[in-house]
Design a protein that fits this description.
The structure holds 2 protein chains of 2 kinds. Chain A is α+β, with helices and mostly antiparallel strands. Chain A contains 15 helices and 17 strands. Helix content of chain A is 39%, strand content 19%. By secondary structure, chain B is mainly alpha-helical. Helices cover 36% and strands 6% of the residues of chain B. The chains are: A alpha+beta, B mainly alpha.
Amino acid sequence: MSTIDHEKYEAVIGLEVHAQLLTESKAFAPVKPEYGAAPNTQVTPLCLGHPGTLPVVNENLVRYIIKMGLATQCDVADKSIFARKNYFYPDLPKGYQISQFDTPICYDGFVDIQLEDYDKRIGITRIHMEEDAGKSIHDQDPYNTLVDLNRAGTPLIEIVSEPDLRTPQEAYAYLSKIKQIVQYLEICDGNMEEGSLRCDANVSVRPRGQEEFGTRTELKNMNSFRNVERAIHYEIYRQIELIEEGGEVVQQTRLWDTSKMQSRPMRSKEEAHDYRYFPEPDLPPIRVTEQMLTDIREELPELADVRRKRFIEEYGMSVDDAVTITDSRYLADYYEEVVDHLGNPKSASNIVLSEVLRVLNEKSIDIREFPISAERVSKLVKLKEDDKINSSAMQDIFNEMLVKDEDPEEMAKEMNLIQVSDSGFLEPIVDEIIENNPDEVQRYKEGKKQLIGFFIGQAMKASQGKANPKLVKDLITKKLND
Amino acid sequence: MSVTEKEVQYIANLARLQLNGEEVKSFADDMNKILGYMELLNEVDTDDVEPLEHVIDLESRLRKDEAKEPLSHEDALKNAPDADSDYFRVPKVIE
């Protein structure tokens, strides 16, 4: 029934990403920001909002956010202040969240995102520091809301993009880029499903060519990368259809419902918030010195974009392969370790892209959990390169290595897979095959040369997979052509 | 600048305070007096003056990122008006 031309419209999207920092202690209190701990066991009087307590800034809150700022080409303010964001909610015992308002510590940056057929630069408006609230549980007790304050005070950074994104795919690519950067910097684990990376989206639409923005809505509750893409897609279509039917977009917050695959407006009972921000009197300004910036700059790792380009130039890798391998810092590290051992970038990328990645995907694990070290995998590849094993043996040994921590060569011997390149052993086998298959020999001689594969297969079988296929081929060809 | 009674009620609501009509009137008067007094400051030219966020001229001392012993679970819940064995308990919050 829909005859709406969606192409007439263009979407304008901006993302607000919260990243939980991987610090040893909370933003303003010296206690672990631990997840999964028993409720209300990782708290101090400060986290509980007791009177008389005072916050002290965790140096890594400042250092980590500066890392993020530098990695996204931001300016870093030499002086910035904290502000109180005031609202009442049971999981916010102080009655305010310590955040930053008009002096974010990092501002005016950008990231470059790569899409299938184009690249695009997305502006970053600001990155600021804040603390997380506790957790409210509404569905465990029929009469009460239960509150766990372990998370209260966990350090967060909020990364606000410019409204530069135009499609759900761009939003997805941008979010993936942010995740990649925080993981490279090791400041956040980037796990959306577990909530250590969270994303809200501001979405509006306007007729193509119009300068002015349309009325926007804010999307929340999208707890995976795919859901961010889906929710934005849904919202763009909803707004376009509304406008085409003569309606108007209402500025509102909408919650994404994964089970229904649609969004619904948040009940407007929480009327327009009035946070009454004011400077946090308990915390003096943060001063960032040149020395601090220099030190932090030196600690920055080589980031994915730079590394990808280097892999293409230095190792002659294809763009796609380089994108895949540099997506994770640890996979790229692993790859380079294999290159160091083997001295051969091509065979290193072969094993990593085929075998290693296959297992990582099958088991949904990270390379850091992968049981075969770069050194051992290199030894295995070396066996193949030295013609001691053939490729099917390499595969078998690789699979064994996943469960056994032994030397690949020892394993090859144990599994009886060391390749036989001794023609004294192979000749009788080949002779026998030729004798037993006179029909095939006849057809081969009449020109059906593809049958060579059949003979090799028979020889491999007869040698229990140990024969060197190249040698077998040479032997057979020679004998059949005699 | 003058504060209306409606604004007083709005602010009271944000602060979760319930004021009766008389109190609203009296707070409106007080606030207007305070703001009126503050208006004196408008006579000063502050164009070249940096905003002052803190009266004491200090910079934040940063704390080393180290975790110490948390409060014991029992102590954490001890002063709560209501709690079960794990959680603080508050009246049901309807989302």
